Each structure stands twice: as C-alpha cells, then as structure tokens.
Amino acid sequence: MNIAFLGLGNMGSHMARNLADAGYHMTCFDIVEAATQAAAEHGMTVASSASEAVKGADVVITMFPAGKHVLDAYRNDLLANADAGTLFIDSSTIAVDDAVEAANLAEEAGHLALDAPVSGGTTGAENGTLTFMVGGSQESFDKAKPLFEIMGRQIVHTGASGTGQAAKVVNNMALAINTIGTAEAFSLGENLGLSHQTLYDVMSSSAAQSWSVTTNCPVPGPVPTSPSSNDYRPGFATGLMAKDLGLAKAAIESTNTPADFGLAAYHAYTEFNSETNSGKDFSAIIATKQKG
Ligand code: NAD
C-alpha cells in the first residue's frame, strides 16, 4: 500500500515515521524543507509538491494546522491529482463544518474520505498511542483501521463524516472546563489554608477526581510528571487549546446549544493565550486564578 503523508510537523512527523517503520511505502510532503529532510533521513520518499505526493497513492493522510489548509490543499492540489477511489484521511483538528465540506469535496471527486482527529499529544504521536476519533463510512473506516492501529491505541468509529471532529471538540471543551475548575479549586483551597499536597490527597480519591487532578495537576509538586512540575512545559499547549475552543464556540453557536461554561472557557483561554503563554501547557491558566 502506498501512503502519501502531508504535514510533517510536531504530530505528523512521528505519525509518518511510525507508518514507515511498520513497512509502508511513504511519500511525504511539507512546505517546510527541514521537515521533509528529516523524513528523507528516515528513508521516506519526499515529493517535490503536494500534487506530486498523491500521484499513485492508495491513501492520503493530511496533518495540517487548521481547516483552511485542509480545504485549500484538497481543492487546489490533492483531489484532482489522486487516482479515483483514493482514501483521504484528514487527522488535523478542524471545524466540524469544514470536515463535512472536505469529505463532500473528496466524495464528489470520486474518492473515499474520513475525518480522523487525534488526542494524545506529541508523546502519543511518537509512541503510537494516539486516540483516533473517526467520522465516515464503514467501508472507509475498515480500510483505514490497520493504519490507525499503528499510529494509535484507541480507535473509535464515531459515525458519519464530521463526527470525529465533533467528538474531538466536545472532549476538549470538557477538558478545558475541567482544568479551569481544578485550577480554581487549588487556588481557593490555598486561600483557605490547604496545602497543595493535602488537597491533592483528597481530590485524587474523591468525587472530583479527574485527569486534570491526577495527571495534569495544575500546581507543581503533587504529580512530578505533570507539566506544572516542569515549568509548565507542554503537554498540550495553551495556543492549541485556545484554537480548539474557537472550534467549540463555533459549534455551540451553530447548534444553539446552551453551553455557558464552554463559552466561558473559550473566553478565558483566548485572553490567556498571549505571546508569553501560548507555548505553555494549558494548565498554566491557574496563574489567572491566583491572588496578586
Ligand atoms: P504543526 O504546525 O507542528 O504541523 C503542521 C505542518 O503542516 C507544518 O509542518 C506545516 O509546514 C505543514 N503544512 C501546512 N500547510 C501545508 C501544505 N499545504 N502542504 C504541506 N504541508 C503543510 O502542527 P501539529 O502540532 O503537528 O498539529 C497538527 C494538527 O494536529 C493541528 O490541527 C493540531 O490542532 C492537531 N493536534 C495537535 C496536537 C499537539 O499536541 N501538537 C494534539 C492533537 C491534535
């Protein structure tokens, strides 16, 4: 099976490498030369352009920053240059509406399409332990599943086109709300005289227990491997969370869902996402909850 992989950034570079290590023939492309050079050094074929990369491919995987990159590439370079019946998998995190549009464009051009965003960060990408949320037909899902199983550990077929992105956006909205709630709890606890460790000992085994407490605890100390215990090095960067909450806001508005806390999380992260903070782990938002 020939795989074209486009977008060799923080995530895509590892995902492509895992597929290459599993023995697939990979043709790669990125607009950044250093990214393609690293892929070439790992034995992958590098194409001279996006349209060149998809020629003769059975599967095309894209891992781009945002929806406009996906739609532009599908329209201008990829769909018309691929053989009929090629399976297009977009693993970028993009708006639900953009994912549906991308799938429609691919299908109108005679191809198969899946939206397959991931969770698990760069560590998950490197270790092949990502979670894939996959929207599209059963036929496309069955064809792609062996590839997802190389790049990930948990693979969920969420339903029709766009539902993979829906699952991703909903999950990250809940995560942001949870993280802000946990940050406020540690801050209020401190102001009431509770040490971080004491509160951690209670919350990690009580009803408020969550990933935001036990894995990504927003205060340094109780969880040595958490970003907070390592100068808030991500993890999952604030800039990416702010981007995903922008997608959540668009989905809340387009569906008229009463989701005040989701919107509040969007505003909190948009404000916090300054030049200084965008590269910090998103649990660093606790700084806005502390006095002075
Ligand atoms: P990134 O910016 O590091 O990588 C994107 C790559 O796409 C870049 O190398 C860029 O040069 C390339 N690119 C852009 N337009 C292109 C084009 N037309 N042709 C070829 N290459 C092109 O981003 P990332 O961190 O790898 O994230 C990729 C996607 O995955 C994003 O949508 C992000 O929201 C999502 N995501 C990221 C993480 C994470 O922890 N980084 C976790 C889950 C999901």
UniProtKB/TrEMBL annotation:
Keyword vocabulary terms for this entry: Branched-chain amino acid catabolism, NAD, Oxidoreductase
Source organism superkingdom: Bacteria
Residues in 6-phosphogluconate dehydrogenase NADP-binding domain copies: 2-159
Pfam family, one: NAD_binding_2
Pathway info: Amino-acid degradation; L-valine degradation
Keyword NAD: yes
Protein name: 3-hydroxyisobutyrate dehydrogenase
Protein EC: 1.1.1.31
Catalytic activity: 3-hydroxy-2-methylpropanoate + NAD(+) = 2-methyl-3-oxopropanoate + NADH + H(+)
Gene3D superfamilies, sorted: N-(1-d-carboxylethyl)-l-norvaline Dehydrogenase, domain 2, NAD(P)-binding Rossmann-like Domain
InterPro entries the record matches: 3-OH-isobutyrate_DH-rel_CS, 6-PGluconate_DH-like_C_sf, 6PGD_dom2, 6PGDH_NADP-bd, HIBADH, HIBADH-like_NADP-bd, HIBADH-related, NAD(P)-bd_dom_sf
Gene name tied to this protein: mmsB
Annotated transmembrane regions: none
Family: Belongs to the HIBADH-related family.
Ranges for domain 3-hydroxyisobutyrate dehydrogenase-like NAD-binding: 162-287
